[in-house]
Amino acid sequence: MMLDLIGSAALTLAQAVGTDAAQAAASAAPAVSAAADAAATAAATGTAAAQAALASGAVETGGQGVLHFIGQSDAVGKSLFVFLMLMSLASWYLILAKGLTHLRIRRRSRKFLSEFWAASSLEQVENEISTHGADEPFAHLASHAIHAQKHHTKYGALKLEESGSTAAFVTRTIRKVIDEETARLENGLTVLASVGSTAPFVGLFGTVWGVYHALLSISMTDGVTINRIAGPVGEALIMTGLGLAVAIPAVLGYNAFVRVNRVYLAQLDAFAHDLFTFLTTGQQVADGSHERNGRTISLASHRGA
After folding, report:
1. In terms of C-beta density within 10 A (0-12 exposed, 13-18 middle, 19 or more buried), how is residue 108 classed?
2. Average pLDDT of the segment spanning 220-230
3. Could you tell me which residue, 260 or 294, shows the higher pLDDT?
4. What is the pLDDT of residue 224?
5. Can you tell me the distance from the alpha carbon of 256 to that of 248, in angstroms, rounded to the nearest whole number?
6. pLDDT value for 264
7. DSSP assignment, residue 89?
8. Among 59, 68, 148, 253, whose Cα sits 20 to 30 Å from the Cα of 272?
9. With contact defined as beta carbons under 8 Å apart, do 129 and 100 qualify?
């Protein structure tokens, strides 16, 4: 009997404890759910704030660039930018103009040399030059050399510059023509060399000037951050890039034209040697014949023709 009463009391206590725990768990569940909802809301709010900050930064970054830097710079910065643009225009004009000129001269020179060594006499060469004109260095050299040889043979030394033998007078004439053609071919190369050597320093000076003023403006504001410094300094570096963009084509063009001129003048000098030998001796250099473009052609003429 006593045992049955103790068992009933224990069962009643266990049921009471179980009911209270269930009610406590049920009451705690809404609190946990509310906390979870609050955390999710906070995360969503933080994500939206981060996206807004990124969008704002993108807008600010979009306002940066070459034009923005030039618009914010002072008179010195704008002057340097204009100077670099003028240097770039001058160098590209010379590169294009001299490139086309070299192509035209090489084509006309090749045609003249083919006609010169295929001619039957110097009179035919003179007729071709008078008809088509001496519009390239080889024809110019041949015209002056032939005229000098004929003039000195017929009239002798009438002036001081014509003194000496016929060979000496023809030599001076050929040297003068070669000097003139060299000066004509090298015209404009000084500008390319100057642009290639000075443009990087002009751009570097613009960068230094821009960084200096950017740091001054930043020092006058409160709450300096890396974003406030990186933007203006990065824009100032644009001037160095512009200087290099102007200098590199000028340097490449200068080197290319120097090499082309050196090869062309070497060919002109070789032609002058052959022409001088024929005009002064009446004979050609290689046993009365010249080989051009893989074929042998002769110039049948005599001294004083």
Report:
1. middle
2. 69
3. 260
4. 65
5. 12
6. 94
7. H
8. 253
9. no
CA 70 – CA 64 distance, rounded (Å) = 10
DSSP secondary structure of 70-88: HHHS-HHHHHHHHHHHHHH
Longest dimension (CA), the chain: 166
Task: Give the closest residue to 285 by CA, choosing from 272, 294, 295.
Answer: 272
Whose tokens are 């600010």? That residue is 60
Contact at 8 Å (CB) between 140 and 181? yes
Q: Which residue has the higher pLDDT, 36 or 229?
A: 229
Burial of 193 (0-12, 13-18, 19+ CB in 10 A): middle
Inter-residue long-range contacts of 115-120, CB under 8 Å, 24+ positions, other chains counted: 116/142, 116/299, 117/290, 117/292, 117/297, 117/299, 118/297, 119/299, 120/299, 120/300, 120/301
Cα Rg of the chain (Å, integer): 44
The pLDDT score that the predictor gives to residue 209 is 85
Average pLDDT, the chain: 73
CA angle 5, 8, 11 (to 5 degrees): 150
Helix (H) or strand (E) holding 270: helix 238-281
